[in-house]
Design brief:
This protein is α/β, with parallel strands linked by helices. The chain has 13 helices and eight strands. The strands form two sheets. The protein has a five-stranded mixed sheet, sandwiched between helices. A three-stranded antiparallel sheet has the order 6-7-8, with no helix packed on it. About 4% of the residues have low confidence.
């Protein structure tokens, strides 16, 4: 039979004699230090009571600490979600886990003259502007912004075999943005760089209008959705180039090389004479241009009503008829000039219709005055 343990608990006795109460102050003078701190009315607790009290204090302190940790975790979680929505959460992601199929790119694969400069900058100082990706359900990512940066990392990895280029800094964009919003982000980023051509913008508008997921019923809707940040005149130019590309189809191999003025003249010619569309397509098919300049010559010849010499020998020049072609660089850009008997043409990348009429008249008068002075 087990023995029962007995704890001695000392209970203080209440004094019955008032004289004992009066004697206590004198007694306390010789009490031990721990006894000196105890109030006269405080009962002395035993070991078990002390243990229970200390355990309760420990549990209370632990609960308070856990609550503080939960509050901090909640705060950090909300902050993470907020930063993620803003695309400010950046991580290094394997480039092999990033897909580029959701959005139609507004850049041609083989046209990027500045890619070498971008690669050199990445090698020297790293990537200063992370790409943006959207997480997918299968653990992969979809590229939203940064096609050129992705392409630069792929080429650097293949050229140097340096596996530090196998991971690219990327901002994580929260799911939930509409397809229109994702396209707008991509387009606005490229509009800032100012080196994207009207043909490339128009081609994206055509592809956007054909995509059933965008909700655009026409090219005009596509231009308004994609280029909402652009000015009215630029939107008009994009729509005109879209009409030109629709007429030429896939026969144009270098549409991004078409200057704005030439593209607008071509579109005007095709709109004025619908029968000229087959003529343009036939000219492009016959030419099979292998370079940008060769294709531009075909387009210029179409505007001038010429055909290739192989199809129709060029007529001998009339006596006294000559033609002078030159390029002149001015502060506003490069001017292409063509002078002949009774006619002079000047063309450059500028919309002269926006210039005040009186200012144009003064410039023309000054031009011919300068010619007379030289004569």
């Amino acid at each position: 039979m087990s023995k029962r343990r007995v704890f001695d608990i000392d209970f203080p006795t209440e004094p019955n004699d008032p004289s004992e109460v009066k004697a206590r102050p004198a007694e306390t003078a010789v009490q031990k230090p721990d006894q000196r701190m105890r109030k006269p009315s405080e009962s002395r607790r035993g070991p078990m009571a002390t243990a229970i009290s200390e355990n309760a204090d420990a549990l209370r302190n632990r609960a308070e600490a856990e609550q503080k940790i939960r509050d901090e975790n909640d705060r950090l979680a909300h902050e993470f979600v907020r930063l993620k929505k803003l695309g400010l959460i950046v991580d290094r992601i394997p480039i092999g886990m990033i897909s580029m199929k959701k959005l139609i790119r507004d850049r041609k694969e083989d046209r990027d003259p500045d890619l070498e400069e971008l690669k050199a900058s990445i090698k020297a100082v790293g990537l200063s502007n992370p790409i943006r990706v959207e997480p997918k359900e299968n653990g992969q990512y979809e590229l939203i912004q940064g096609y050129r940066r992705m392409k630069a990392y792929w080429e650097l990895l293949n050229e140097t075999d340096d596996h530090s280029y196998a991971h690219i800094p990327a901002g994580l964009v929260a799911n939930g943005d509409t397809l229109q919003t994702l396209y707008r982000r991509m387009v606005d980023e490229n509009l800032v760089r100012r080196d994207i051509s009207f043909a490339e913008m128009a081609q994206l508008a055509l592809s956007y209008a054909e995509d059933a997921g965008t909700g655009a019923d026409s090219v005009e809707d596509a231009v308004n959705d994609l280029y909402a940040s652009a000015g009215r005149q630029k939107k008009i130019y994009i729509r005109h180039f879209a009409q030109l590309l629709s007429a030429a189809g896939d026969l144009l191999k270098f549409p991004e090389a078409i200057p704005r003025a030439l593209g607008l003249e071509l579109r005007k010619r095709l709109e004025a004479d619908a029968a000229s569309v087959p003529e343009l397509r036939e000219a492009l098919t016959r030419a099979k241009a292998a370079t940008e300049e060769a294709e531009l010559n075909v387009l210029r010849g179409f505007l001038e009503g010429k055909r290739k010499p192989a199809q129709r020998p060029a007529a001998a020049p009339r006596p006294g008829v000559a033609k002078t072609t030159l390029r002149c660089t001015v502060p506003a850009g490069t001017v292409r000039c063509q002078a002949r008997d009774g006619k002079i043409e000047m063309a450059m990348e500028r919309d002269f219709s926006e210039i005040d009429r009186h200012k144009l008249e003064g410039a023309i008068a000054a031009f011919f005055a300068a010619l007379e002075d030289d004569a």
